Amino acid sequence: MTPLYREFKGEGVRLIGFADDTNILAFGKTTEQCAAALGRAFCSINSWAKLRGLSFNPQKSELIHFTKSRKPPSTPCVLKSMTVKPAETARFLGIWLDRRLRWTGHVQALRKKLAVQTFALTRLTATTWGCKVARARQLYTAIIRSTIAYGAGVWHQEDRSEQSQPKGLASKLGTTQSKALRVILGAYRDTPVRSLETSA
Fold first, then answer.
1. Average pLDDT in the 187-195 region?
2. Does residue 43 surpass a pLDDT of 60?
3. Residue ranges of domains in the chain
4. In angstroms, rounded to a whole number, what is the distance separating the alpha carbons of residues 41 and 38?
5. pLDDT for residue 133
6. Residue pair 31/85 in contact by the 8 Å Cβ criterion
7. Nearest CA to 23 among 1, 49, 41?
8. How confident is the model at residue 126, as a pLDDT?
9. Which of 27, 7, 95, 17 is nearest to 56 (CA)?
10. pTM, whole model, 2 decimals?
11. Which of 69, 128, 127 is CA-nearest to residue 99?
12. Is 27 in a helix, a strand, or coil?
């Protein structure tokens, strides 16, 4: 899918669009500067859209300020006649971003989704009538592992040392992965994770 990309010269603003999902990214020293730049950029793209029979809905817009400050920024952004207040997390192409880029929102969203998937996998692999290990592994690979790995190119922290432990988001999702591996293999809780991965 080829994105729509546009740079507003002199504004410190970038526009990235995928089909019906458009994102405006503004850079500035203060949140007030960014909010003002976003408002001007929205007016510009809204005029462009009208000429082509398109329209943007400000009510569906979300605002997030990426900053290292401990206190959450409260600067709103005015889009046409609507005021959009900043949020702590926002979703972009299936990945949840938080304002400090710590991936806490993405972890919470993944854990909720994986809890439902793991529950379904537990029911499908029941010991008396459930599917065999090969089918259970196929379900795990197609559903659970793909959910865990989605967006890994963005959030994964690579460590090239041989005996390195997972870091960052990968370490937080390790317990969920090992739980799913125990389900498909019928292994005990005390089974080491490395042994589970090798067996699976």
1. 76
2. yes
3. 4-97, 103-199
4. 5
5. 80
6. no
7. 41
8. 74
9. 17
10. 0.71
11. 69
12. coil
